[in-house]
Amino acid sequence: LHLVYCIAVYGLRMAIALSSNDPGSDRAAPVWTQVYPAQVAHHNLGGHVGRGGGYRWQSLLSMHFLTSVLKSIEPRIDDDFVDRLNYYYTSGVIIMMAILVSAKQYAGHPIECWVPAQFTKAMEQYTENFCWIQNTYWVPFDDFIPQRSDEREERQIGYYQWIPFVLAIEALMFYIPTSVWRFMNAQSGINILGVLELACDSRNIEPQNRLYTVNVLARHIDDALRFQRDFGRKERSVYLWAFIRIGKFYGAYVTLMYCFVKFLYFINVFGQFFLLNRFLANENTQFLGAHVVWNLLQVG
């Protein structure tokens, strides 16, 4: 999955680079722009375009938007392995499973019915569609098919139609905590991503570059903390949580947000276990996952 994603991003970036008329658009920005992203050199996007220019720029913008979306979900340096395991690898696997299930349900034959021989192809297709929409019921191989409607309703299985949507919601829920983290740390006044990228730059091996990097980082963090303290003296009375010495104006905002996001990952995992158990379990199995594992161990 990661290899396919890298190939797609590389191909889109190459297409954008080949489609651009600006020879300097693919040059990297200076190192200090990673800390102060507002000071990025502007590029001339060109002037008048011909009749075919509108379509060309529309395609270019579409590719740029798709590249931005793919880049926004790739792992960043301001998270750790636990974060990537939740929002990147787990979400990727769940999305792949959702695509496979959707392809089977909506592009293949999700159910096959044993119909009378005099049924035409259209009648057979209608019967299978009707059976798929209605909830099916499960009967063991060594049991007789129940004749009463209430017995069939007790054995109904009504979740299989919703599996692709449930998987998509699960993938979204795994991505929500990292979205909260990226949004909240942007409100801290410290460019955390830029600071970490600059600190981990391989050019810091050189003593001169390392000294320059330390000075830039120290100045940036000092300016951000000084602004927080000065602004906090004016707005401290507005915030209720200022009295318990937390918030942006006491220097613990990023730490609190980091712990809060870890707690969100914890809540998300156990919440999904609970919801799936309510979604899949029945009266005989209160804890579906433990019940399935126990049955597998007994059979093995």
Structure description:
- The chain has helices at residues 2-19, 53-72, 81-107, 121-133, 149-154, 163-186, 192-199, 207-235, 253-280, 288-299, and strands at residues 136-137, 156-157.
- It has a domain at 1-21 and 53-74.
- The protein has 300 residues and is mainly alpha-helical.
- Mean pLDDT is 72; it is low at 1-7, 15-52 and 238-246.
What is the topology?
Layout: H1 2-19, H2 53-72, H3 81-107, H4 121-133, E1 136-137, H5 149-154, E2 156-157, H6 163-186, H7 192-199, H8 207-235, H9 253-280, H10 288-299
Antiparallel strand pairs: 1-2
Proportion of strand residues: under 5%
- Write down the secondary-structure element order: HHHHEHEHHHHH
Report the strand count.
Answer: 2
Number of helices: 10
Rg on CA atoms, Å: 28 Å
Query: Largest beta sheet, briefly?
Result: 2 strands, antiparallel
- Helical content class: 55-70%
Q: What are the segments in which pLDDT stays under 50 over at least 5 consecutive residues?
A: 1-7, 15-52, 238-246
Distance between the termini: 32 Å
**What is the molecular shape?**
elongated
Mean pLDDT: 72
Structural class: mainly alpha
Identify the strand order in the major beta sheet. 1-2
